[in-house]
Every structure is written in structure tokens, then in C-alpha cells.
Description:
A: six-stranded mixed beta sheet, about 0% helix, B: mainly beta
Amino acid sequence: QKEVEQNSGPLSVPEGAIASLNCTYSDRGSQSFFWYRQYSGKSPELIMSIYSNGDKEDGRFTAQLNKASQYVSLLIRDSQPSDSATYLCAVKVQAGTALIFGKGTTLSVSS
Amino acid sequence: GAVVSQHPSRVICKSGTSVKIECRSLDFQATTMFWYRQFPKQSLMLMATSNEGSKATYEQGVEKDKFLINHASLTLSTLTVTSAHPEDSSFYICSATDRGQQPQHFGDGTRLSIL
């Protein structure tokens, strides 16, 4: 069974700090990797997508992928209270298939 | 960016009622749409995959006769919860994709409450 694992948290960081969110996946053939942010009562919002090994940066967000270790992470620099949300790691095994979601990590940024 | 519209955003109805939820892709052709359900403090669980013009593929444990899915066009998919009961109360979210490897874009979700 294909699985995506995340630490549920909560992960608490002070404002301005770096938040590090981690995710592992079980299917070595997975092709696409995504991080979504979900506020309470809302639907997920795409933050980052990454398809190849290495780092991908977009503003304060950096996604890191290591396919050999089956590991993907999200770094949030200069964390803000508005970043407080649940972050969902999602994996797509192959084109046309649905995303497989982790249970999410709750991030709390204190001012 | 791609936009997915979901309607209604909230439904409160009596047990035994059937409820229809619409999911529309507004600026792209969604060859595939997905329906998820999310219970409180749980992750999104895939219910079914809907391909335009063909029957939906349901995940194990999801009753296809209870959750009717129609994907008659490249911009619209509907989920009908038939004879809903309190245990069907949940947050239902649709998503759509226009190209196989591209990110899925989510609708705003429908919070269904069955009394």
C-alpha cells in the first residue's frame, strides 16, 4: 500500500525562524511531489511542486527532494504567524493518478 | 492560475436527503477530477477518480451506489450523496488536473452536515 508519512506535530517556531517540515513516501516509483497548505476549514492550497532531486526555491519556501532516500522536505524561512496552518505532503505515483496525501503537519508560528 | 469552483460551500439537511455537489474547472479542461473526503483532524482521503466520459473509479470501501459521480464534460463533475446519513457528514473536496503530471487544483470544498 502506498503511504506518505509526516510528523503530525504540532511544530512550534518563533516568528522569523526557519520551519522545517519533513515527509517520507513508500513508493520508490513516485514521480511528482507537492506541498499544500491547509487552513482550518479550508481546502488545500498548493505551495510548492518538485519533480527532480535537489532543491527548489520560491520566495520564503524551499522544497528539497531526495529520491534515493524517498524523502521530501519543505523549509519556510522568516516564518510568519500567517504561516500557521497544516502542511500536507502529497505524492503522485504516475501521470493521471490521484495524489496520495500524508496526514499533515500542524505548524504554529508565535509572534 | 488554474481555478476550480465547487458549489455549494455548505449544506445542512435532514437524514435521508440526497445532496448534489458540483465541481467546475473555470479556465482549463479537466480530463480528470478527483473527489476527496476529509473528517476532522484527518487527512484527505480519495473517494473516487472521475474521467470525462467514462465511469468513475472508486476507492476500496467507497460505495459507488451511494456516492454517484458524473463527469459529463471537460469542465464539470458532480458528486451526489444519496440518502445521506449523519455519518456522511464531512468536508468534501474536489480537485482537477489538466495535464497528467501537473499539480491538482482544489475547489473550496463543501461542508456537509446531516442532521
